[in-house]
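Task: encode each sequence below as structure tokens.

Item 1
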Amino acid sequence: MTYPGFDTQWLTQHGAVHTAQEIAHQPRLWREMAATLTATEADDNAFLQPLFALPGLRIVMTGAGTSAYAGEALAPWLVRQGIDARAVATTDIVSNPREYLDPNAPTCWFPLPAPATARKAWRR
């Protein structure tokens, strides 16, 4: 397979083949995710509406690397919708969980998996 400006052999020699593969898969994955979200909208809403009705609900999105960045991109939009949402790197939660997880507040912990893991979950 050839990636823009690089062939697989060069990418492999420079330890970049996996990153290039993930980048190359992104357009297809976004289309698949959009189709999945459209197909499951009614079930998703039935699950989420009672959660969003909880007073004081906090949404904590977790991930590492690019998954953490996805949460950082989504959190401000959720906050603008009036939702107490935050993105926290999984390493931060491990090192200091009480800073982010309040046992007295209803919390929806939303893990953001790596693209390869997400791809497997979307196909289930």
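Item 2
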Amino acid sequence: MSENQNGTAVQGKGLAITGFVLALAGLLLNNVMFGIAVVSIGLGGSGWIMYLWLVVNIAGLILSIMGMSKLKKTGGKRGLGIAGMVVGIVGTVWAIILVLGMAAAAKLSSDFESRLQNELNNIDWEQELNDVE
């Protein structure tokens, strides 16, 4: 474990590194998870994986802040904590935007599907087939 100038052990370095890695993975894979969620919704499922990914982004942000706070108290270098916090904020905001867009698209898809089903049920198919002949 590294030590600060006073000879005491620096705490929080592991939290800062873990937070940075989670935040970076969250930011880089947001669009991939969004694509998986959209395909899932298109196939009749739900987009739960995007909500899970939002939690991963938030966890990276929280761990980075906790690591940075502990490093500040023990006199360690806070660079990775700050980087993790910035990347975590950007990733979390982007994930929230994607979740809101996915929820709106799922709602529109559901409304369209129900209207289409109503229209198809209201068609007099026998009359339509007789008109074709």
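Check on item 2: The mean pLDDT is 84. Residues 107 and 113 are 10 Å apart (CA to CA).
End of task.
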